[in-house]
Amino acid sequence: MSYDDVEIEDMEWNGELQAYTYPCPCGDLFQITKDDLRLGEDIARCPSCSLYITVIYNAEDFADAAGKKSLEPSKQQPVAVA
Amino acid sequence: MMEEATKASSPSSSSAAAAAAAAGEEEEVWSWGAGTDGQLGTGRLADEHLPRLLSLSLPSSISLLACGGAHVIALSSGGRVFSWGRGSSGQLGHGEAATNCLTPKAVTSLEGYFIAGVSAGWSHSGFVSDTGCLFTCGDGSFGQLGHGNLESCSSPIEVSYFLSKHVDQIACGMRHSLVLLKGDPNNRVYGFGSCKRGQLGPTSNRTRSTSLPQAIQGLENIEIVSVVASGDHSAALSSGGRVYNWGRGFPGFSDVHSPIELSSLLRIKQIALGWNHALVLTDGGEALILGGNRHGVLGNLENLGLTNHRPDVSALVLERVPGLDGKKVMQIAAGAEHSALVTEDMEVMTWGWGEHGQLGLGSTCDWIEPQRVSLGHTLPDHWAKCSIYCGSGFTFVIRSRTSSGPHQDD
Ligand SMILES: [Zn+2]
Protein backbone atom coordinates (compact mmCIF):
# COMPACT_ATOMS: atom_id res chain seq x y z
CA MET A 1 0.00 0.00 0.00
CA SER A 2 1.26 3.42 -0.96
CA TYR A 3 2.40 5.35 2.11
CA ASP A 4 1.16 8.67 0.79
CA ASP A 5 0.10 10.57 -2.31
CA VAL A 6 2.45 13.47 -2.96
CA GLU A 7 2.19 16.15 -5.62
CA ILE A 8 5.31 16.65 -7.70
CA GLU A 9 5.37 20.34 -6.67
CA ASP A 10 5.87 19.19 -3.07
CA MET A 11 8.89 17.10 -4.00
CA GLU A 12 12.36 18.62 -4.10
CA TRP A 13 14.86 18.23 -6.92
CA ASN A 14 18.07 16.74 -5.56
CA GLY A 15 20.97 17.39 -7.92
CA GLU A 16 23.23 14.91 -6.21
CA LEU A 17 20.72 12.07 -6.51
CA GLN A 18 19.41 13.38 -9.85
CA ALA A 19 15.93 12.66 -8.56
CA TYR A 20 12.85 14.29 -7.10
CA THR A 21 12.72 13.47 -3.41
CA TYR A 22 10.33 13.55 -0.47
CA PRO A 23 11.00 12.67 3.19
CA CYS A 24 10.43 9.04 4.15
CA PRO A 25 9.43 8.32 7.76
CA CYS A 26 12.45 6.04 8.10
CA GLY A 27 14.74 9.07 7.73
CA ASP A 28 15.78 8.50 4.14
CA LEU A 29 14.18 9.98 1.00
CA PHE A 30 11.60 8.70 -1.47
CA GLN A 31 13.10 9.13 -4.94
CA ILE A 32 11.92 9.22 -8.54
CA THR A 33 13.99 10.24 -11.56
CA LYS A 34 12.92 12.34 -14.53
CA ASP A 35 13.34 9.26 -16.70
CA ASP A 36 10.89 7.38 -14.48
CA LEU A 37 8.40 10.21 -14.84
CA ARG A 38 8.86 10.31 -18.63
CA LEU A 39 8.00 6.62 -18.73
CA GLY A 40 4.83 7.31 -16.81
CA GLU A 41 6.07 5.78 -13.57
CA ASP A 42 4.31 7.25 -10.54
CA ILE A 43 5.88 5.30 -7.70
CA ALA A 44 8.75 6.91 -5.75
CA ARG A 45 10.63 4.40 -3.62
CA CYS A 46 12.83 4.72 -0.59
CA PRO A 47 16.19 2.96 -0.99
CA SER A 48 16.31 2.17 2.74
CA CYS A 49 12.92 0.63 3.44
CA SER A 50 9.87 -1.05 1.95
CA LEU A 51 7.73 2.08 1.76
CA TYR A 52 6.82 3.95 -1.41
CA ILE A 53 4.66 6.92 -2.32
CA THR A 54 2.46 7.70 -5.29
CA VAL A 55 3.59 10.81 -7.15
CA ILE A 56 0.84 12.99 -8.57
CA TYR A 57 1.99 14.80 -11.69
CA ASN A 58 0.88 15.85 -15.11
CA ALA A 59 2.31 13.28 -17.51
CA GLU A 60 2.45 15.85 -20.32
CA ASP A 61 4.88 17.99 -18.34
CA PHE A 62 7.43 15.22 -18.60
CA ALA A 63 6.35 13.68 -21.91
CA ASP A 64 7.37 17.00 -23.51
CA ALA A 65 10.87 16.66 -22.24
CA ALA A 66 10.92 13.08 -23.44
CA GLY A 67 9.97 14.21 -26.90
CA LYS A 68 12.93 16.57 -27.02
CA LYS A 69 15.43 14.04 -25.80
CA SER A 70 14.16 10.86 -27.32
CA LEU A 71 15.37 9.69 -30.70
CA GLU A 72 11.86 8.71 -31.59
CA PRO A 73 9.83 11.38 -33.30
CA SER A 74 7.53 13.26 -30.98
CA LYS A 75 3.87 13.36 -31.83
CA GLN A 76 3.77 16.95 -30.77
CA GLN A 77 5.03 19.87 -32.77
CA PRO A 78 8.58 20.65 -31.79
CA VAL A 79 8.79 23.76 -29.68
CA ALA A 80 11.44 26.28 -30.49
CA VAL A 81 13.86 26.73 -27.66
CA ALA A 82 15.87 29.88 -27.32
CA MET B 1 26.34 -8.72 17.24
CA MET B 2 27.72 -9.80 20.59
CA GLU B 3 31.11 -8.38 19.78
CA GLU B 4 29.58 -5.05 18.97
CA ALA B 5 27.50 -5.06 22.12
CA THR B 6 30.65 -5.58 24.17
CA LYS B 7 32.38 -2.80 22.36
CA ALA B 8 29.49 -0.42 22.89
CA SER B 9 29.44 -0.99 26.63
CA SER B 10 33.22 -1.06 27.05
CA PRO B 11 34.35 1.48 29.64
CA SER B 12 37.40 2.57 27.60
CA SER B 13 35.83 5.73 26.23
CA SER B 14 33.32 6.49 28.94
CA SER B 15 34.82 9.76 30.13
CA ALA B 16 31.36 11.28 30.40
CA ALA B 17 30.14 8.43 32.54
CA ALA B 18 33.23 8.81 34.74
CA ALA B 19 32.68 12.54 35.08
CA ALA B 20 29.04 11.98 35.94
CA ALA B 21 29.97 9.30 38.45
CA ALA B 22 32.44 11.67 40.09
CA ALA B 23 29.61 14.15 40.49
CA GLY B 24 27.57 11.48 42.21
CA GLU B 25 25.31 10.98 39.27
CA GLU B 26 24.76 7.85 37.29
CA GLU B 27 23.55 8.31 33.72
CA GLU B 28 22.91 5.95 30.84
CA VAL B 29 22.12 6.85 27.24
CA TRP B 30 20.62 4.17 24.98
CA SER B 31 19.68 4.28 21.30
CA TRP B 32 18.20 2.01 18.63
CA GLY B 33 16.53 2.07 15.20
CA ALA B 34 17.55 3.66 11.90
CA GLY B 35 21.22 4.60 12.04
CA THR B 36 22.60 4.96 8.54
CA ASP B 37 23.33 8.66 9.02
CA GLY B 38 25.11 8.20 12.33
CA GLN B 39 22.13 9.48 14.33
CA LEU B 40 22.33 6.68 16.91
CA GLY B 41 25.65 7.96 18.28
CA THR B 42 27.09 4.44 18.14
CA GLY B 43 29.97 5.59 15.92
CA ARG B 44 28.61 3.40 13.15
CA LEU B 45 26.43 3.96 10.09
CA ALA B 46 24.06 1.07 10.71
CA ASP B 47 20.62 0.27 12.07
CA GLU B 48 20.35 -1.28 15.53
CA HIS B 49 17.43 -3.58 16.29
CA LEU B 50 18.26 -3.79 19.99
CA PRO B 51 19.03 -0.97 22.44
CA ARG B 52 22.71 -0.06 22.55
CA LEU B 53 24.31 1.52 25.60
CA LEU B 54 26.31 4.50 24.35
CA SER B 55 29.60 5.99 25.45
CA LEU B 56 29.06 9.53 24.29
CA SER B 57 31.88 11.88 25.08
CA LEU B 58 30.04 14.83 26.55
CA PRO B 59 31.41 17.14 29.25
CA SER B 60 28.36 16.97 31.50
CA SER B 61 25.02 15.25 31.86
CA ILE B 62 22.30 15.67 29.23
CA SER B 63 19.20 17.55 30.28
CA LEU B 64 17.33 17.17 27.02
CA LEU B 65 17.52 15.53 23.60
CA ALA B 66 15.84 16.56 20.38
CA CYS B 67 15.64 13.96 17.63
CA GLY B 68 14.84 14.92 14.03
CA GLY B 69 14.70 13.22 10.64
CA ALA B 70 18.20 11.78 11.04
CA HIS B 71 19.99 14.08 13.47
CA VAL B 72 20.13 14.53 17.23
CA ILE B 73 20.68 17.62 19.37
CA ALA B 74 21.73 17.19 23.00
CA LEU B 75 21.41 19.96 25.54
CA SER B 76 23.79 19.67 28.47
CA SER B 77 22.82 20.65 31.99
CA GLY B 78 25.26 23.53 31.57
CA GLY B 79 23.31 24.98 28.64
CA ARG B 80 25.70 23.80 25.96
CA VAL B 81 24.58 22.20 22.70
CA PHE B 82 26.00 19.13 20.95
CA SER B 83 24.76 17.48 17.77
CA TRP B 84 25.38 14.47 15.56
CA GLY B 85 23.83 12.48 12.70
CA ARG B 86 22.95 13.77 9.26
CA GLY B 87 24.32 17.20 8.51
CA SER B 88 23.84 17.57 4.76
CA SER B 89 21.62 20.65 5.10
CA GLY B 90 23.60 22.28 7.89
CA GLN B 91 21.15 21.09 10.56
CA LEU B 92 23.97 20.16 12.96
CA GLY B 93 25.00 23.81 13.25
CA HIS B 94 28.71 23.03 13.03
CA GLY B 95 29.40 25.74 10.48
CA GLU B 96 29.70 23.42 7.54
CA ALA B 97 27.22 21.19 5.75
CA ALA B 98 28.83 17.80 6.20
CA THR B 99 27.29 14.52 5.12
CA ASN B 100 27.16 13.22 8.66
CA CYS B 101 28.82 13.35 12.04
CA LEU B 102 29.19 10.10 13.98
CA THR B 103 29.91 11.49 17.43
CA PRO B 104 28.63 14.48 19.42
CA LYS B 105 30.23 17.73 18.38
CA ALA B 106 29.70 21.07 20.12
CA VAL B 107 27.74 23.83 18.40
CA THR B 108 30.46 26.33 19.18
CA SER B 109 28.78 29.42 17.77
CA LEU B 110 26.18 29.22 20.58
CA GLU B 111 28.74 29.07 23.36
CA GLY B 112 28.15 32.65 24.42
CA TYR B 113 24.59 31.70 25.37
CA PHE B 114 22.98 29.44 27.93
CA ILE B 115 20.67 27.37 25.73
CA ALA B 116 17.48 26.31 27.45
CA GLY B 117 15.51 24.65 24.66
CA VAL B 118 16.23 22.83 21.39
CA SER B 119 14.17 21.22 18.65
CA ALA B 120 15.08 19.06 15.65
CA GLY B 121 12.89 18.95 12.54
CA TRP B 122 13.28 16.85 9.43
CA SER B 123 16.38 18.76 8.30
CA HIS B 124 16.45 21.95 10.36
CA SER B 125 17.12 22.85 13.99
CA GLY B 126 16.08 25.48 16.50
CA PHE B 127 17.73 26.72 19.71
CA VAL B 128 16.32 29.01 22.41
CA SER B 129 18.52 30.77 24.97
CA ASP B 130 17.52 31.43 28.57
CA THR B 131 17.33 35.12 27.60
CA GLY B 132 14.65 34.41 24.97
CA CYS B 133 16.74 34.56 21.80
CA LEU B 134 15.89 32.16 18.97
CA PHE B 135 18.47 30.68 16.61
CA THR B 136 17.86 28.37 13.64
CA CYS B 137 20.00 26.49 11.14
CA GLY B 138 19.72 23.79 8.48
CA ASP B 139 17.41 23.52 5.50
CA GLY B 140 15.63 26.79 4.79
CA SER B 141 14.12 26.01 1.42
CA PHE B 142 10.55 26.34 2.73
CA GLY B 143 11.28 29.35 4.94
CA GLN B 144 11.36 27.10 8.01
CA LEU B 145 14.32 29.01 9.49
CA GLY B 146 12.27 32.23 9.76
CA HIS B 147 14.95 34.51 8.37
CA GLY B 148 12.79 36.05 5.64
CA ASN B 149 14.45 34.09 2.85
CA LEU B 150 14.76 30.54 1.54
CA GLU B 151 18.46 30.18 2.31
CA SER B 152 19.86 27.25 4.25
CA CYS B 153 22.57 27.87 6.81
CA SER B 154 25.03 25.65 8.61
CA SER B 155 25.56 27.84 11.67
CA PRO B 156 22.71 28.92 13.95
CA ILE B 157 21.55 32.43 13.07
CA GLU B 158 19.38 34.53 15.34
CA VAL B 159 15.82 35.04 14.06
CA SER B 160 15.72 38.82 13.96
CA TYR B 161 11.92 39.01 13.91
CA PHE B 162 11.96 38.09 17.62
CA LEU B 163 14.79 40.44 18.66
CA SER B 164 12.47 42.52 20.83
CA LYS B 165 10.46 39.53 22.06
CA HIS B 166 11.15 36.75 24.52
CA VAL B 167 11.01 33.34 22.86
CA ASP B 168 10.13 30.52 25.22
CA GLN B 169 9.98 27.47 22.91
CA ILE B 170 10.66 26.32 19.37
CA ALA B 171 9.13 23.24 17.71
CA CYS B 172 10.40 22.08 14.33
CA GLY B 173 8.31 19.90 12.00
CA MET B 174 9.09 18.50 8.57
CA ARG B 175 9.09 21.84 6.77
CA HIS B 176 7.69 24.30 9.30
CA SER B 177 8.44 25.72 12.74
CA LEU B 178 6.31 26.94 15.64
CA VAL B 179 7.42 29.44 18.25
CA LEU B 180 5.92 30.14 21.67
CA LEU B 181 6.55 33.56 23.20
CA LYS B 182 6.76 34.32 26.88
CA GLY B 183 4.84 37.12 28.52
CA ASP B 184 2.57 38.14 25.67
CA PRO B 185 -0.97 37.04 26.59
CA ASN B 186 -2.24 37.33 23.01
CA ASN B 187 -0.61 36.12 19.83
CA ARG B 188 1.88 34.06 21.70
CA VAL B 189 2.19 31.36 19.03
CA TYR B 190 4.02 32.10 15.79
CA GLY B 191 4.87 29.93 12.82
CA PHE B 192 6.93 29.99 9.62
CA GLY B 193 7.84 27.63 6.78
CA SER B 194 5.54 25.45 4.73
CA CYS B 195 1.85 26.20 5.28
CA LYS B 196 0.21 24.31 2.41
CA ARG B 197 -1.45 21.79 4.74
CA GLY B 198 -2.61 24.43 7.20
CA GLN B 199 0.31 23.89 9.57
CA LEU B 200 0.61 27.67 10.16
CA GLY B 201 -3.13 28.15 10.64
CA PRO B 202 -5.18 30.41 8.37
CA THR B 203 -3.15 31.86 5.50
CA SER B 204 -4.16 33.67 2.36
CA ASN B 205 -5.16 31.44 -0.53
CA ARG B 206 -2.48 29.61 -2.44
CA THR B 207 0.30 30.60 -0.07
CA ARG B 208 2.58 27.59 0.08
CA SER B 209 5.12 28.87 2.54
CA THR B 210 6.18 31.92 4.47
CA SER B 211 9.71 32.68 5.56
CA LEU B 212 8.81 35.39 8.07
CA PRO B 213 7.16 34.52 11.40
CA GLN B 214 3.43 35.16 11.54
CA ALA B 215 1.05 34.86 14.45
CA ILE B 216 -1.09 31.72 14.39
CA GLN B 217 -4.69 32.94 14.28
CA GLY B 218 -7.27 31.19 16.40
CA LEU B 219 -5.30 30.86 19.62
CA GLU B 220 -5.88 34.41 20.89
CA ASN B 221 -6.68 34.70 24.58
CA ILE B 222 -5.72 31.10 25.22
CA GLU B 223 -2.79 30.64 27.56
CA ILE B 224 -0.59 28.24 25.59
CA VAL B 225 2.14 26.49 27.57
CA SER B 226 3.73 24.32 24.89
CA VAL B 227 3.86 23.89 21.11
CA VAL B 228 4.56 20.69 19.17
CA ALA B 229 5.32 20.10 15.48
CA SER B 230 6.02 16.93 13.50
CA GLY B 231 5.52 16.05 9.86
CA ASP B 232 2.93 18.57 8.63
CA HIS B 233 1.10 18.60 11.97
CA SER B 234 0.98 21.35 14.57
CA ALA B 235 -0.40 21.30 18.10
CA ALA B 236 -0.48 23.43 21.22
CA LEU B 237 -1.31 22.71 24.85
CA SER B 238 -3.08 25.25 27.06
CA SER B 239 -2.49 25.85 30.75
CA GLY B 240 -5.93 24.34 31.33
CA GLY B 241 -4.86 21.06 29.73
CA ARG B 242 -6.72 21.53 26.46
CA VAL B 243 -5.20 20.37 23.16
CA TYR B 244 -5.38 22.42 19.95
CA ASN B 245 -4.45 20.85 16.63
CA TRP B 246 -4.03 22.16 13.08
CA GLY B 247 -2.26 21.24 9.85
CA ARG B 248 -2.38 18.03 7.87
CA GLY B 249 -5.43 15.89 8.56
CA PHE B 250 -4.91 12.59 10.29
CA PRO B 251 -5.61 9.57 8.03
CA GLY B 252 -9.18 9.75 6.75
CA PHE B 253 -9.57 13.36 7.86
CA SER B 254 -9.25 16.64 6.01
CA ASP B 255 -6.52 19.22 6.63
CA VAL B 256 -7.27 21.74 9.37
CA HIS B 257 -6.40 25.34 8.51
CA SER B 258 -7.30 26.77 11.90
CA PRO B 259 -6.55 25.46 15.40
CA ILE B 260 -9.30 23.13 16.60
CA GLU B 261 -9.73 22.01 20.18
CA LEU B 262 -9.73 18.25 20.63
CA SER B 263 -12.77 17.10 22.50
CA SER B 264 -11.64 15.45 25.67
CA LEU B 265 -12.98 15.70 29.16
CA LEU B 266 -9.56 14.84 30.51
CA ARG B 267 -6.88 17.32 31.36
CA ILE B 268 -3.82 16.77 29.14
CA LYS B 269 -0.24 17.41 30.25
CA GLN B 270 1.81 16.30 27.23
CA ILE B 271 1.36 15.99 23.45
CA ALA B 272 3.54 13.96 21.07
CA LEU B 273 3.01 14.07 17.30
CA GLY B 274 3.98 11.57 14.62
CA TRP B 275 3.50 12.01 10.88
CA ASN B 276 0.11 10.30 10.93
CA HIS B 277 -0.80 9.98 14.59
CA ALA B 278 -0.77 11.82 17.88
CA LEU B 279 -0.37 10.75 21.48
CA VAL B 280 -1.54 12.68 24.51
CA LEU B 281 -0.87 12.05 28.16
CA THR B 282 -3.51 12.92 30.75
CA ASP B 283 -2.85 14.43 34.15
CA GLY B 284 -3.85 11.09 35.58
CA GLY B 285 -1.09 9.26 33.69
CA GLU B 286 -3.25 7.76 30.96
CA ALA B 287 -1.89 7.62 27.38
CA LEU B 288 -4.35 8.24 24.56
CA ILE B 289 -3.81 7.90 20.82
CA LEU B 290 -5.38 9.59 17.81
CA GLY B 291 -5.17 8.78 14.11
CA GLY B 292 -2.71 6.51 12.42
CA ASN B 293 -4.02 3.53 10.50
CA ARG B 294 -0.71 2.26 9.22
CA HIS B 295 1.86 -0.11 10.57
CA GLY B 296 -0.38 -1.16 13.40
CA VAL B 297 -0.01 2.18 15.12
CA LEU B 298 -3.75 2.20 15.54
CA GLY B 299 -6.66 0.12 14.29
CA ASN B 300 -8.57 0.73 11.17
CA LEU B 301 -10.20 4.04 10.47
CA GLU B 302 -11.48 2.49 7.24
CA ASN B 303 -13.76 0.27 9.27
CA LEU B 304 -15.42 3.33 10.70
CA GLY B 305 -16.76 4.21 7.25
CA LEU B 306 -14.86 7.47 7.15
CA THR B 307 -13.22 7.01 3.79
CA ASN B 308 -15.85 8.75 1.69
CA HIS B 309 -16.39 11.96 3.52
CA ARG B 310 -13.50 13.46 5.38
CA PRO B 311 -14.59 15.13 8.61
CA ASP B 312 -12.27 17.50 10.40
CA VAL B 313 -10.23 16.65 13.44
CA SER B 314 -12.95 17.66 15.89
CA ALA B 315 -14.70 14.40 15.01
CA LEU B 316 -11.63 12.37 15.91
CA VAL B 317 -11.83 10.24 18.98
CA LEU B 318 -8.98 9.76 21.38
CA GLU B 319 -8.57 6.11 22.23
CA ARG B 320 -6.85 4.63 25.22
CA VAL B 321 -3.47 3.06 24.38
CA PRO B 322 -4.12 -0.67 24.86
CA GLY B 323 -2.08 -3.24 26.74
CA LEU B 324 -0.86 -1.17 29.68
CA ASP B 325 -2.76 -3.11 32.35
CA GLY B 326 -3.66 0.03 34.21
CA LYS B 327 -0.05 1.12 34.62
CA LYS B 328 0.39 4.85 34.83
CA VAL B 329 2.41 6.54 32.10
CA MET B 330 5.05 9.14 32.95
CA GLN B 331 6.10 10.27 29.47
CA ILE B 332 5.16 9.74 25.81
CA ALA B 333 7.15 10.17 22.59
CA ALA B 334 6.32 9.73 18.91
CA GLY B 335 8.51 8.98 15.90
CA ALA B 336 7.16 9.38 12.38
CA GLU B 337 5.38 6.01 12.54
CA HIS B 338 6.24 4.58 15.94
CA SER B 339 5.45 5.42 19.54
CA ALA B 340 7.14 5.04 22.89
CA LEU B 341 6.34 5.66 26.55
CA VAL B 342 7.80 5.36 30.02
CA THR B 343 5.63 3.81 32.74
CA GLU B 344 5.53 4.77 36.41
CA ASP B 345 7.92 1.92 37.23
CA MET B 346 10.45 3.23 34.68
CA GLU B 347 9.74 0.59 32.08
CA VAL B 348 10.20 1.67 28.45
CA MET B 349 7.56 0.44 26.00
CA THR B 350 7.32 0.86 22.21
CA TRP B 351 4.89 0.05 19.42
CA GLY B 352 4.08 0.91 15.80
CA TRP B 353 6.33 0.59 12.75
CA GLY B 354 9.44 -1.50 13.37
CA GLU B 355 11.15 -1.97 10.02
CA HIS B 356 14.38 -0.28 11.10
CA GLY B 357 14.42 -1.74 14.59
CA GLN B 358 13.05 1.54 16.00
CA LEU B 359 11.02 -0.45 18.54
CA GLY B 360 14.21 -1.93 20.04
CA LEU B 361 12.66 -5.37 20.33
CA GLY B 362 15.35 -7.22 18.37
CA SER B 363 13.30 -7.58 15.20
CA THR B 364 11.81 -5.54 12.38
CA CYS B 365 8.21 -6.43 13.22
CA ASP B 366 5.39 -3.94 13.71
CA TRP B 367 3.41 -4.02 16.95
CA ILE B 368 -0.12 -2.78 17.60
CA GLU B 369 0.26 -2.71 21.38
CA PRO B 370 3.10 -1.38 23.54
CA GLN B 371 5.88 -3.92 24.10
CA ARG B 372 8.43 -3.86 26.90
CA VAL B 373 11.98 -2.89 25.84
CA SER B 374 14.81 -4.55 27.69
CA LEU B 375 17.60 -2.11 28.67
CA GLY B 376 20.50 -3.93 30.27
CA HIS B 377 20.49 -5.87 33.52
CA THR B 378 19.63 -3.14 36.03
CA LEU B 379 16.08 -3.26 37.28
CA PRO B 380 14.04 -0.38 35.81
CA ASP B 381 13.20 0.93 39.28
CA HIS B 382 16.91 1.39 39.98
CA TRP B 383 16.53 4.63 38.04
CA ALA B 384 15.06 7.82 39.46
CA LYS B 385 14.50 9.35 36.05
CA CYS B 386 13.93 7.87 32.61
CA SER B 387 13.32 10.03 29.53
CA ILE B 388 12.42 8.87 26.04
CA TYR B 389 12.88 10.66 22.69
CA CYS B 390 11.94 9.57 19.17
CA GLY B 391 13.38 10.72 15.86
CA SER B 392 11.68 9.84 12.57
CA GLY B 393 12.90 6.22 12.60
CA PHE B 394 14.93 5.90 15.79
CA THR B 395 14.67 6.12 19.57
CA PHE B 396 16.79 7.36 22.50
CA VAL B 397 16.48 6.78 26.24
CA ILE B 398 18.31 8.60 29.02
CA ARG B 399 18.18 7.14 32.53
CA SER B 400 19.73 8.71 35.59
CA ARG B 401 19.88 8.61 39.36
CA THR B 402 21.90 10.43 41.96
CA SER B 403 23.80 7.70 43.75
CA SER B 404 24.47 9.72 46.90
CA GLY B 405 21.11 11.48 46.91
CA PRO B 406 17.91 10.51 48.69
CA HIS B 407 16.25 7.30 47.65
CA GLN B 408 13.66 7.80 44.96
CA ASP B 409 10.86 6.35 47.07
CA ASP B 410 11.30 8.92 49.80
ZN1 LIG C 1 12.36 4.76 4.00
TrEMBL record, chain A:
Domain DPH-type MB stretches: 2-58
Residues making up the signal peptide according to the UniProt record: none
This protein's pathway: Protein modification; peptidyl-diphthamide biosynthesis
Keywords, alphabetical: Iron, Metal-binding
Record-linked Gene3D superfamilies: DPH Zinc finger
Catalytic activity: [3Fe-4S](1+)-[protein] + Fe(2+)-[Dph3] = [3Fe-4S](0)-[protein] + Fe(3+)-[Dph3]; 2 [3Fe-4S](0)-[protein] + 2 Fe(2+)-[Dph3] + NADH = 2 [4Fe-4S](1+)-[protein] + 2 [Dph3] + NAD(+) + H(+)
InterPro entries noted in UniProt: DPH3/4-like, DPH_MB_dom, DPH_MB_sf
Pfam families reported for this sequence: Zn_ribbon_CSL
Family: Belongs to the DPH3 family.
Record-given protein name: Diphthamide biosynthesis protein 3
Automatic annotation (TrEMBL), chain B:
Keyword Ribonucleoprotein (UniProt): no
Originating organism: Eucalyptus globulus (Tasmanian blue gum)
Keyword Repeat: yes
Extent of Low complexity compositional bias: 7-20
Species classification: Eukaryota, Viridiplantae, Streptophyta, Embryophyta, Tracheophyta
Keywords linked to the UniProt accession: Repeat
Name of protein: RCC1-like domain-containing protein
InterPro entries per UniProt: RCC1-like_dom (IPR058923), RCC1/BLIP-II (IPR009091), Reg_chr_condens (IPR000408), Ub_ligase/GEF_domain (IPR051210)
Residue ranges of every copy of the RCC1-like domain listed in the record: 28-397
Pfam families to which the protein is assigned, alphabetical: WD40_RLD
Cited PROSITE patterns: RCC1_2, RCC1_3
